[in-house]
Amino acid sequence: MRNRGSLVFAALAAFGIAGFAEAVAQGRPTPDFAFYRSKVEPIFLTKKDGFTRCVVCHAEANNHFNLQKLTPGAAAWTEEQSRKNFEMVVKLVNPGDADTSRLTMHPLAPEAGGSAYHSGGRQFMNKDDPDWKILVQFVDGAK
Ligand code: HEC
């Protein structure tokens, strides 16, 4: 009967793990607006050497990463525009899971595990890019 005992134990252990995973799933992080506005949005606006700024292609874009148009002469979005951007960006995020979020995977180089196709090209060459890490923190609910 030793074997049956260990089978029961294995079944209980497996159930325990499933229950734990479920609990974690229910407590999923929520992306934070203040973090978005102070840390994430500047990434969309800042020129990096050798790269076109996200906002150049994605203001009033006809794809789902559709940023508000900047007011002519303005260097950044107003709070109201940022809120609209935030609502749009959150839809490209799978909270707590950067590996399946379009926001993080689409602009990442395919060699680094990103999407095979982005018309805007490789915006982040690998997962060590500090800006890419900020996007991941956002997906993970950083405040
Ligand atoms: C040179 C223009 C260009 C630049 C610069 C650019 N993109 Fe894009 N991006 C596109 C185009 C065009 C698409 C839609 C077609 C596709 O999926 O490639 C797209 C698609 C996307 C999508 C998927 C949207 C959807 O419909 O699901 C995301 C997310 C994205 N880009 C993020 C970024 C980020 C973040 C940056 C800056 C770090 C950036 N892009 C820079 C042109 C650009």
Question: Which SSEs are present, and which pair or pack?
Answer:
Blueprint lengths: L1 H25 L6 H13 L8 H5 L20 H12 L11 H4 L24 H10 L4
Description:
The chain has 143 residues and is an all-alpha fold. The protein has two domains: 1-28; 31-139, no CATH class. Helix content is 48%, strand content 0%. It is built from six helices and no strands. The chain has helices spanning 2-26, 33-45, 54-58, 79-90, 102-105, 130-139. Helix 2 crosses helix 4 (79-90) and helix 2 (33-45) runs antiparallel to helix 6 (130-139). The longest helix is centred in the N-terminal third of the chain and has 25 residues, at 2-26. It is globular, with a radius of gyration of 20 Å. The termini are far apart. The model is unreliable at 15-20 (pLDDT under 50). Bound molecules: heme C (HEC). The site of heme C has 18 residues, from helix 3 and helix 5.
